[in-house]
Design a protein that fits this description.
about 270 residues; alpha/beta; WalJ/YycJ-like; RibonucZ/Hydroxyglut_hydro; Metallo-beta-lactamase, Chain A; Metallo-B-lactamas; MBL fold metallo-hydrolase; binds zinc ion
Length: about 270
């Protein structure tokens, strides 16, 4: 098993959860799955939830924290959330009081061998963030649930060799789809979710600035198709060598994405 990898356990509006492992440091990003599902996914890596070094949360929406109550009940793993996210979570569930380590959005902190840097994301949540995880020369970026990519986030994601980036919806499918008007406006708005074309434009910027691997994430079930998201970003990367793209499926990835290894296989689904 590779020492450095990212493995998506769930991605999309029904649940989000990803595992980052580097130099023996294991960080879970969001826990939008049941503890049972998390336990089963980690077993493939001979790991148990209690052995994780940290859980870092992007924001309080249910698809990112569905399994948090049980996770806190069954493990002693430190859980990090931005100040606003921690407050929103505790307001809803008083039992979380004292169990979350709050940080200021934009702050960095250390988990084992990894430096975790947060950045604000434009989203309809209290204090949502994305993350950069850095270990030596390896830089890994995570950005989902954002209406657009702000300059400040672009500056941090630039140069990350692996980036998990939201490719939420196809604008035409969204407009023609089943969502009520207000929800369509919210999803497409500046505090909603990143569309396939916006993802593709930013992907090209990343590829021009050193990104070697892209994982498209948080695809809408109703307003997107994996093949469509993949094609849009691949088209934008045409003519650029050396950047692979794959889609994080709704359920567990078939195999992890190896970090910091040229030409490593990347699952292409859809
Ligand atoms: Zn959200
Ligand atoms: Zn979400």
């Amino acid at each position: 098993m590779a020492e450095h990898f990212y493995y998506s356990i769930a991605s999309g509006s029904s649940g989000n959860c990803g595992l980052y492992v580097s130099d023996g440091t294991a960080v879970l990003i969001d826990v939008g799955v049941s503890l049972r599902k998390l336990t089963a996914a980690l077993a493939a890596f001979d790991m148990k939830p209690g052995e994780l070094d940290a859980l870092i949360i992007t924001h309080e929406h249910i698809d990112h924290v569905k399994g948090l109550a049980m996770f806190l009940k069954k493990t002693e793993v430190p859980v990090f959330a931005s100040r606003g996210t921690a407050a929103a979570l505790t307001a809803k569930e008083p039992a979380f009081e004292g169990r979350l380590t709050a940080f200021e959005s934009g702050d960095a902190f250390r988990v084992g061998e990894t430096t975790v840097r947060s950045f604000a994301t434009p989203h309809d949540a209290a204090d949502s963030v994305g993350y950069i995880l850095e270990n030596g020369r390896r830089r890994f970026g995570f950005a989902t649930d954002l209406g657009f990519v702000p300059q400040s986030a672009a500056a941090l994601l630039r140069g990350c060799e692996t980036v998990v980036l939201e490719s939420n919806h196809d604008p035409h499918m969204l407009q023609a789809g089943p969502y009520p008007y207000a929800l369509k406006q919210r999803v497409a708005g500046p505090n909603g979710h990143l569309s396939n074309p916006d993802c593709a434009v930013f992907a090209a910027f990343l590829a021009d600035n050193g990104t070697r691997k892209l994982v498209l994430a948080h695809l809408s079930e109703k307003n997107n198709m994996p093949a469509l998201a993949l094609q849009q970003t691949k088209n934008a990367l045409r003519g650029r060598e050396g950047c692979t793209v794959c889609v994080a499926p709704r359920d567990c990835m078939e195999s992890p994405v190896v970090l910091g290894e040229e030409g490593a296989a990347c699952l292409v689904s859809g």
